[in-house]
Amino acid sequence: MKTIFLLTLFLFNPAFSLYLYAQDLSDAGVEVMLSDEEIEAFRKQAMESVTDLSRYIRIIGEKSREESSRRKTVQLATGLFISEDNVIEASSLKEPKPIPYPVAAYFNRLLKLRYSAVSITWYKIYLSNDFKQGADGRYYGTATIYQRFEGRFNRETGGYRDVTRKKITLIVTLVNKYKGPNAIHDWQLKLGDIKVEEIQ
Amino acid sequence: MSEIKLRLLLPGCQSASIFVDDHDSIADWIPDILKNHSFTESADQFTIFRNDVAIPTIHQRFSEAGFRQGDTLLVKEISGEAAPQQPSPAPPVADDISGGEVIPSDQPMAAPPQPATGKQQVMSRPSKQVRLYVILPVIALLAAGFCVYLWWGRDYAEPGPVVVETSPAVPQPGAEVANAVSVQKAPALIPVPAPPDNATASGIQQERPEAPQPVAEEVITVDDLSVSQCLRKLAAPGISERKAAALKAQLLRQFQSPETPVIKMHDGYPTNTGISIGDYIESVVLLNTKVTIVRTESIDSKISRIFITEE
User: Fold this and answer.
1) Could you tell me the CA-to-CA distances from B230 to B281, B285, B293 in Å, in that order?
2) What single DSSP character describes residue A95?
3) pTM greater than 0.90
């Protein structure tokens, strides 16, 4: 009984899963670990991707831009995420409890905000948790950003303003593509969920 | 260029046309457009030429044209050489619009589906051609007639127009008076300025307001630009949409497909983000990104992977 228990524990251990995953890929001649230099490169890329997202979000919010351009930007911003099922949390001073929206829904909400002018700025962008390999073989890290949101109606009625600290999951995953009979293995950096940590 | 015309008519709106010369792929992406997007709002007619325009770009064009997610759209007619198996043209649109329903292009609309025999393929196609055969000669005849009329009018018009037209370089005394007379005597000739001796119908047509020119015909010499030059020009702030479109088309021609991966490099290490060249170009235009190409890999003289760094 004890043996079965130990065996079960061993089989379901994440480290064992990672071992099996690594074994499969090593058998296929694929490097399953990132070198320090590669991780450093992905740290830089992560900052670039988050910065790109911040610029996309700013453009999506800009009422002065043509809507076609903003919609195109939604498409590009969505492409930064590992899946459209990822969520972006939003909160407000009136509704501090974060509400998760699927990525596309969040961006579409930004498009339709009922302010006459919207300004969204991300600042203090930094890698708050370094990349570490998970049980599934992917590398996970976290970036933290501060978002200043400002929506204005007009001079008479004023508007709304808040500052939110958000945490962005960063994922480096091994992607297998098949080009004819040949498999190509690429490490790719994508964004995961974005969660609200604090609102002021 | 053989072409497919897909006419998308919207409730009470204008039409949109797509021209492609890649017949094999059309069946793939048109249903996708209709499945993934439903449209209701209209925009000016827009046209996509050439098969090197990416499918995502086509989606984007729909979006640019003002269509929105959740809108409805009705395919009125699909015709052309590559669509012989498509159903016959639908009945009038007004009767067909049933509020928001999207009718996929591969489903029959009014007529029942017919077996795709060679004969029917021929029969389903010529309706457009026949129309062309009839309309073109008529237009040519009308134009020729108009020219002849002008020519005769010039020779036999009353003195007013003759005085003005035959000696435009040397103003004659009393020319103004002659003009004034011509307004009364030959009103049809007045709006037409004195044609040069070699005036033709085409010369007259040039005075009509110019129809919107498709992007592919814009006179922008980009053929000899390298990939990096194209990217640099696209990144320039304030680039016009037409110029950007021409540059994009030129750039995409040099790649295997718009899905060709773009790999960013940091300190000599690749950091793929899974972005395709089609999307990357859009991003460069939007964010004015300055790009340096590190290297490219090609298959059959088309780029299959591109490695870049950003400033």
Assistant:
1) 10, 11, 11
2) S
3) no
